[in-house]
Structures are given as structure tokens and as C-alpha cells.
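Appendix B. Extra example for self-study. Work through it before the problem class; the solution is given directly after the inputs so you can check yourself.
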Amino acid sequence: MSTEVSRADLLRPLHTTTKQYWLLFVAALVVTLVFVYAYSLQLRHGLIVTGLADWGSGGGVTWGIYVGGFVWWVGIAHGGIILSAAVRLFKMERYTPVARLAELLTIGALSMAGLFIVIHLGRPDRVVTSIIAAYPETVHTSPLVWDVTVITLYFVLTGTYLLLTLRHDIHQLRGQLPDRLDPVYTLLTVGYTESEDRVSQRLVWWLALGIIILAPLLLHGGVIPWLFALLPSMPGWYGAVQGPQFLTIALTSAIGSVLVLALAFRKAYGWEHIITDDVFRGLGLWLGLFAMLFLWLQLQQVITGVFAAPIDVDQATAAKLNDPIYWVAIFGVILALAYLAAQALQPHVFSLYGTVAAGILVVTATLIEKTFFVVEGLMYPSFGLYASVPGEYTPSWVELSAVAGSLAMVVIFFLIVAKVIPVVELHAIEGEVES
Amino acid sequence: MSLELLPLSIEPGTWLIFGIVFIPVYAVFLGWFLGKPRDLKVTGIGIGYFVGLTVALWAGLFVLSMAIKFAFF
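Solution. C-alpha cells for the complete assembly:
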């Protein structure tokens, strides 16, 4: 296969638009508009349109699927750094074809995570002024503000990584890129000279290193779980295990999402020879490992919660184990793991669609598990504080439309971005840039 | 909760954010400026992206929040 053919393959999304593309775009747009309408209802009437309730008088919980969705999207965002680190730091060249897709997923997913915070606020118009103005004071004591800090850092570091790695590719492919987007390409390659590539590779290596420490260990294994793990009045939340537990959730949902993306682009653009079966086999193995770690940490929590636990922990754990929703999530992951383990042990069992289906199952299960974690933690505080004002939580259609809307917006994001920049790194098909 | 070092009281967030969470950021900038091959122009572009993206992110959010304010509040 000649280089020229491969470059044309790479640029196919920018030059061809199929009917399916438009159908998907319109469908995603419709779902987004439904969400926008639902959100406008919430802005007009307040959070009463959700299934959330006040403690003390209303019964129920104050955090639900908006927070669950927030945590879920941050987890999915970790796909970017996992793939980038694998390629840049650990030299796992096999995953180069999906690295940029994963980095773009990080940008889209973090944006959606931020969106879930904004839509959870009663007065979203105050979010920027409040946070920025109070930052010098609140950074010292507020896990919520720590969260905002680290998410901003992850977003900015990933964006910088993307912009730096795009320069070489855009320059190399300039002649074959659509003319109408020339101003965009000029902006993206501002100040570019070919001599910068060696330096750029080094800058990007350091970014990957910085992000691999920041994101898994300090974001989804750090400030995100600390929103919950630092609160002793919620025995379902409290404890050091949440850091590692949340990390396994991030790793599983991240890889699951990357699998979906990889299949979508492979099928849409005939990239069987670029995003090969090997990529899916490898990702499937890692997904299986992380799924196993997720279940292992669930086991830690269950056994410490049922053996001879303090009363409040005992009650919170009993409530969890008696709720079918918890088991739906757990069995979802077990099922995915069973398939992936079979595939690992018997390679002939491997199936592209099976692997991606396992990924979808895990991504769905992690949303359910995370939302359930948030809600059950609040339902069973220490001292049975709200036992006299019992309540239930079921997400309203407004809340569910936010989840659907966020998925639709990420789809639209990819549909648009794929038409502007090459979503596979050039060196995936042409070898490493000289460094 | 706070670390008492007379007359200062150090809260966890102070050392957590500036002492631990920022380590990767310090590492990135140290690596950028001290590593070789060195090229201040390219490094400057990287810094530009970093700062620009931070500003763009929060400015964008500000614009969105203002749009919500004028439409609904």
C-alpha cells in the first residue's frame, strides 16, 4: 500500500459526506434540541422539574443523575490520556491510530462534564463570577473548587497536546485539505516551521507525562472521588477506597468509549487497514483487566460493609445490596468481563462487535453504578438523619434528556471535527516523525 | 483539619493543589524550558496554547452563563 493511498484514506472524512452522516447529524441535533428545551424548562421553573428533593422536608436526595453523569463523563475523558500515554510514553505503537480520537473524546467528554455541573446549578449565570472571584479563598478548603482546578488543567493540557501534535500533520497534508477551511489551517499552523518537529515531540512527551500523573491519580483517582470520600456523614461514600474505585470506573468507561469510537470510524470510512483488529483485541484485554479491578474493589467495599461493620456502614451496604439497580450494574460488568476473558483465553472467540458490545455494556453499567452510588450514599447518611422524611429518587425526563443530550452533543462534536482535521495521526500510517 | 504552624494555619487544599496537583504542571514547564533540543519560540507557542485555552475555556463559559442570565434571569 503506497503512502499516497493511505493519505487519501486518512482524509476521506474531510472529502466525503454520506447520507448516513447527515442522518446521524440530524438525529443527534434533534436529541440535543430536546435537551435544550428540557433545560429551558428547568431554567424557567427551577430544579423542581427534576426528581431531586430537599432533605429534611422533601425527602429524597439532592444529587442524582446530574452528578452521576458528571462523574461518568470525567471517567470517559480519561480515554484520551490512557491512549496518548500508551503511545508516547510506553511506545505501544499499536494504539497510535486511535490516539487522536481518544484525545478528542477527552475534550468533548470534559466539556460535557462541565455542562452537567452547570445544569445542576440553580443559578448557572453566577458560576464563573462566583468561582473565579472566590478562588483565592476557596481553593484552600473546597473539594468542589479542587475539582474545577483539576478539570481545567486536564482540559487545557490535553488541548495543548492536541494543538501541538496537529501542527505537523496539518502542514504535511495541507495540499490535500479542503480549501474552504484554509483560514482554520493557517491558524492551527501559525508560526510552524519543519524544524520545530523535534522540539514539539519533546514538548508533547512532557505533556503526556504530566497528564498521566494528573488525570488518573489526581483527577478521577483524586479530586473527583474526594467530593464523596471526604464526607464521613455518608458511610456509603466515605473512605480511602473511593480513589482507586473511581479510577477503575474511569479506566473501564474510557476504554469502552474508545472502542465505540474506533468501530464507528473504522466502519464509516473503511479504515479496516488503519484501525485494525489488533487495536480492538488489545483494548479488549485492557478493558477486561480494568473491569476485573473494578469488581475487585467493589468486593473490598462489600466485605468490609457486611462482615462486622459499624451500624451506619452496615445499613448503607445492606441498602446497596438489596437494590436491584446495583446488581444490574455489577452483572453488566461481570458479563462484559466474562466475554472479554473468554476472548483472551481463546483468541478465536474474538469478535469485533462482541468487544465493542462489551465496551458499551461497561459504559452503561458505569453510569448506572455511579448514579446509584451518589444517590444511595445520600439516602443512607449516618444516624439515619432523614429516616423521618423518607423519599425516593427517580430521574425525571428532564434529567434523562440531559444524558441523551450530552451523548448527542459529543456525536455532533465528532461529526464536525472529523470534517475539519484528520482524526488519525499521520505517523500512525507513515511512521514516527524524526526525533 | 488544618496544619497549625504558628502563626499560620495551612488548610489541606493549599498543599494539595499547589504542592501535589500542580506537580505535573511544574514538571511540564520545567521539562519544556530545561530540556533539549530547546527552542523558545516553539515553547512559547506551547505556553500560548496553554494560557489561551485556559482563558478561552472560562471566557466561553462566562459567555454561556451571561446568555442564560439575559434569557432567563
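Self-check: The mean pLDDT of chain B is 90. If your reasoning did not lead you there, revisit section 3.
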